[in-house]
Amino acid sequence: MESEWLSVLSKNVIPFAALALLIHPSTSHLFVNRVFWTFCAYLKAASALPQLRVMQNTKGNGGDQI
What Pfam families does its record include (predicted)? Predict the structure, then answer.
């Protein structure tokens, strides 16, 4: 269980946090708020990828069956 958590942490959280520190929007908000907002946007975008993969795989196997 612990190795699974470390895998998720090392593959998702740490790279997105580093990317958010480097690339974030320029707004009038505090720096920390901009970085956290960007981190959440990156994490949300990446979390949708497995769902898109499943949708693409089921598209060729009959379509609209849920």
Answer: ER_lumen_recept (PF00810)
